[in-house]
# Entry
Amino acid sequence: MFKPLEVFVGLRYTRAKRRNHFISFISFISIAGIALGVTALITVLSVMNGFEKELRTRILGVASHMVIGSASNGMDSWQTLPSLLERYPQIIGQAPFIRAEGMLTAGEGVSGSLIRGVSPEFEPQVSSLDQQMTIGQLADLTSGDFNIILGYELARRLGVRVGEKVTLVTPQASVTPVGIMPRLKRFTVVGVFEAGMHEYDSALALIHLDDAAKLFLKPGQVSGLRLKLTDMFDAPYLTQLMVQDLPRGYIITDWTRQHVNFFRAVKTEKMVMFIILTLIVMVAAFNIVSTLVMVVTDKRADIAILRTLGASPGCIMRIFIVQGVVIGAFGTLLGLVGGVTLASNVEKIVPLIEQLMGRKFLSPDVYYISDLPSEMLWSDVIVISVIAFSISLLATLYPAWHASRTQPAEALRYE
# Structure
């Protein structure tokens, strides 16, 4: 024997043919349960990572990584900011904007709207709106022409098409000889975008920065400066750094603060799903306990003989730990292979299943994400594998301890 006694005997017990076939069946169920639990954990977490990434991409396709604003209603000296921001190599895009609220009307259609004044020249540096245009393009927003681009749902709600007119009613009022009247302006619809997020498609409207400054009485001012970073996850750190470096009076926020409730909900949901699916592994671990308890009962005479030959209680305990560890390791390995394979090909497997069943799991009429995205993180795979193996190892301790307590005289009395 070139192995330690415990490993040799434990492996021999694992692969030996049993008199009691029910024990072999329970061992198989234990391996299958662990493999199924690990596969489900890796696949579900990968799909949830994919959904989170897809939603984050769609949100940041319209929003921005960081926003520099002012404590007052407008920023007068925003033209000096680009030179101040040159010291931060993480910033790769900058675009001024004016944010306001208004009410759009067209015929009998009325809808509240978030109005964003943008510069067609700089906006593509911080968002992907130019790539999300279904009709028209950002360049159609020209200064002085009072053109407007609407979200898909907003245009559908108002019942307007490209080339038709909409009226924008602003919260500001004008004093006229006949009294105080709301400020109105007619705009021509020159484009429609579809970001894939109902929050933006149903409420956001884009106009030229100069037109917004005239309409909302902000000559030479902007609401802030939107920034794009090389790595979006640097935003919290860079925000703290810029608060200390930039002059007083600026308010700096990043995407993690603007959508904190949404991403916190996604994180909580992932944690809950992880705990629920881990219960599958724990059920399989209880099967390991059952298997080893029955093996200990079946091998009482063998344990007694080993004890009379000089094996210590610790040696007996390690024999059965080896047997349980082999079951847990084999199940974890099978689950690892199955989970990685399934998570890597879920985007191909799901359309095939949909085609065979003749139905769509995520209807595009209801869901903005109609496909199942997947992003497998090796960090998740490693954590899941370690947890599954650890649960399997813990499940062996009681049966192994019970085996080590076997008394040779008692076990051999009726043999």
User: Anything to note?
Assistant: The first strand starts at residue 66 and ends at 70.
